[in-house]
Write a structure and sequence with these properties.
The structure holds 2 protein chains of 2 kinds. Chain A is mainly beta. Chain A has 4 domains: 103 residues, Immunoglobulins (Immunoglobulin-like), CATH 2.60.40.10; 132 residues, Sandwich (Immunoglobulin-like); 106 residues, Sandwich (Immunoglobulin-like), CATH 2.60.40; 103 residues, Carboxypeptidase-like, regulatory domain (Immunoglobulin-like, Sandwich). In chain A, the strands form 10 sheets. In chain A, strands 10, 11, 13, 18 and 19 form a 5-stranded antiparallel sheet that branches. Chain A has a 5-stranded antiparallel sheet with strand order 25-24-27-28-30, with no helix packed on it. Chain A has a 4-stranded mixed sheet with strand order 4-1-8-6, with no helix packed on it. Chain A has 2 helices and 37 strands. Chain B is mainly beta. Chain B has 5 domains: 105 residues, Immunoglobulins (Immunoglobulin-like, Sandwich), CATH 2.60.40.10; 101 residues, Sandwich (Immunoglobulin-like), CATH 2.60.40; 88 residues, Sandwich (Immunoglobulin-like); 108 residues, Immunoglobulin-like; 98 residues, Sandwich (Immunoglobulin-like). In chain B, a hairpin with a 5-residue loop joins strand 24 and strand 25. The N terminus of chain B is likely disordered. The chains are: A mainly beta, B mainly beta. The interface between A and B is large, with 62 and 71 residues.
Chain lengths: 476, 548
Amino acid sequence: MTFRTLTTVVSGLLIALALVPNVSAQNNSGIIEGIVTRLGTTEGLAAVRITITREGQDELIGEPDAMTDAAGHFLIRNASPGLYSIRARRPGYAAPMQDGVELEDGGAKKHIVVSLEKPLDITLALTPGAVLAGRVLDPLGKAAENANVQAFLVASDGTSRVVGNSGVDDLGMYRIWGLPSGKYKLSVEYRRGAQIFEDDRVVVSSSGGVFTVVAGPAAVVQDSWVKTYFPGTVDSNRAALIEVGEAGVIEGLNFGFQMAQSFKISGTVVDPGRSQRSGIPDFYLIPLGANDGKVLDAPRMSQNNLGIGPNRQPGAFEIRGIQPGRYILYAEDWANGVNLHDNFVVSQTILDISSDISDITLVMSGTSVVEGVIRTADQQPARNARVVLIPPEELRGHPMYYKEVKTDASGKFTIKGVMPGDYTAFAIDPAEFKDTPPPSSVYALPTFLGSYAQQGTVVRAKAEERVTVSIAPVRK
Amino acid sequence: MKPLLPLLIALLMAQAPQPPPLTPVTNPADNGTVEGNVIWASKSAPLEGIPVYLRKTATENAQEAQRRGVANSDNSGHFVLKDVPPGTYIVVAERRGYFRESDAEIRVTVPARGTVRNVDVRMIVGGTISGRILDMNNLGLAGVRVSTAQAVYLPSGKRDMQDRDSGSTDDRGEYRIRALRPGSYYLRANVDVWASDSLTYYPGLRDQSGAVAVTVREAQDTNASFRMEPRLKTVLTVSGTVVSTVPGVPADKVGEIWIWTRDGGATFYDNRADDMSNGRFEIRNIFPDVYDLFPDARDKDGTLYTSRTTVELVDRSVENLTLVASPLVETRGRVTLNGEFPAGRLEGMTLGVEVLRGLGPYATAPSAGGMSVPKPIVIDRENGEFVSGTLVPGTYRFTPGRLPPDVYLEDLRQGPVSVYSDGFAISDRPGEPIEVVLASPGGRLEGVVRNLRQEPAARTTVVLVPDATRREDRRKYFNVQSDSDGKFTFRAIPPGTYKVLAWESVPGAAWLNAEFMRKYEARGETVVFTKGASSTVQLIAIPKEPEP
């Protein structure tokens, strides 16, 4: 007998063994079934992703537990007993505000308790998201191919955040869908600067102050073709407010690129520990709004026009096509081979740009580590508590300055990569919000701070230092 | 401006003393001009707005090359590149959605202060595919990825489809894939979720053998709408306990379970048990199939203890499974060439491990920072004996590498039994030694490949395919590329009957695919090798076939 046949026999035995203990599997599981309808109808919605998430754990959005069939029906068999939230998502659809169902991240959500006694029967409803669409032309009247259109949702206090975007195709068309209802501003701009990846098929370079976008738009993109707001202004304060209702579709939002004076800035990043770093820092040029320092736009990476290659001096950068105004120039780099935002160095400076600026020097320094333990009211370690650092007021429009982590089983947390500065820290213990939804994401800032501002703890983060803090969890 | 340049270079060198600039300094006054036309080949019409630049070599970085200057063709298709330092260049015209008519490089030599005129770049204009993806209720499906797909052949010879260009559907279910080279394409759609069982081929079929290709024509839009039914595959959970035969193992929790499947090879799953104490494990999101499970139990030094357990997952999860962690064994063996070990003759030879069923040596090497690198097998230089590293229970073959040019693998033996085909089994006890039987001299085949016009065909793929009885053995296939004169040489061919074929272009290792070979079989020349035989052959390359 060869080894091969022996192995087959052993495998056969193991299969038999493996299948024996399996009989009781059904008895330990709860069943959840239900239907997802189109809002206001009894019509089932197909292809809806259903995810159940244990209370206190993170939702695995890409790993749904079920999908609805043609009748909108779904079935989950293997839920062990406990407290869950159940979510229904279908791209392009949103959940309306209703009793027990809240609007969050484009899906319908309910809190449920799974038990072994009886199957749960759930009904959820979705409604199509709003749509903004149109056509964008460059100043030569051609399709603004490869430009990017962003939709800013404007809050009642005038702050805005990007909630959707769309590329512009070869016909100049854009379409931003799946939007919550509300008031919007639209902007369009080109990606500028040297692209690192040639595979991208958008290779951008510059010569003589003119940007040539190879394999890209229909025309040469000039420095003066600046970010333009609908219906055709470079001033975000004069952008039209477009109001769209639930499931509303507004098409024909056509506009064209405006030309305006623009400037370039250049300089060098000095990093004492450069050999440990990638040496290719990312740059962010963050506009500070004219009105009381309130930030209007979300930050986006600004391309360093000096591409990588033998011709670039170490640390040299140039950013072009900047409209006059007050900006934060922020640069960050991280340790070689570690593409995680917990081991990086940063530098930032505030610039008033009203002409070209050269010889800017940014000196990189290490970030701060903030750590501590969160305890419940009865001094027990709070597991899965959310710890949030909120930046100083002038930076509150920028998600990148916020930090959010969860505590481990012993209530400990560590936040790495914190830009030095004064922060307000909050801890949210899920147990405190067992019956009601906990405060939603920190990015919905005015709501959160409005309710809990007095419960914050001031944290001073210093460069290259570890700061240990004690934070009391927020009370309802 | 002129005096500035040397100063600038001096400054640059001062800041970065190494390496010195690669480009020789030329006098800007000597610069020349390149001008020509971009032409829509099929219409003999001018093409406007195509950026043109010059590359020094075919591999020069595009950004670097463009820094010397880019010219857009004007409305009569004309372009002018000025201020070009004297030298030889390749003219490049690149824009998304436009394709060169011919692959041949356009080379120009710019003399000092000279102008190169009438450089014609002939191009093909791409087309688009657009349409709508509907769900079972005829509602547009948003967020669906629609891709063009082309038939490819995997290293195993299996035919498969691979995504090329893609687009995403909007809220109406509409998509548009642009910048496609004219030709025919398969189309498929999928939704972006784990365990998706939704892959659908145009015109709405789940089975790729029924896929219908759509034709893209120059500067035209082809409509292709179809219906799909998004659904999920069944996923199951396996849970239980890892027990050890050795005290102190595992030293810590079992963080991973390795899994081997016939089609998927070896992979590992994270232990997602809420409580991992006492060897508890739970692995989730596993598709129904037959698996070999290997617990990753380590002692305090990082040495692996494991064993193989075969589990068949049909339609329900498996609980309370016991996996055993046992010490692993090494395998001994020796290398022979024509019945002996000629000291010195096999210098530099390597021995690899091919996994037929199991995990191979990667899992057993102590992991350092997440990466496990197996130790190479060392062959004793005096007597050819070797000891493999530990292998987890399974079935393996040894694969010799870097052999002298006339030496081939004749057999693998374990005692009296040939394990050449089926491999040798590893259990938790040492087995009999393995003999790696090498022989020489192998056969030799030389030849020239020509195209249909009888010109020498460079860079064709020349393949030796074994006769029908040995087609299952990938180790009996050999391939080389013809050189710039169309010449090729095979060495160390094991005795037997083969067919030899040459292709101008062949997708992957398509010759391993029986269906593919049926199409071309008759175009091969038969060659028979006895030990050490030499022959020559003249071949006509099989021309490039239109895709897919």
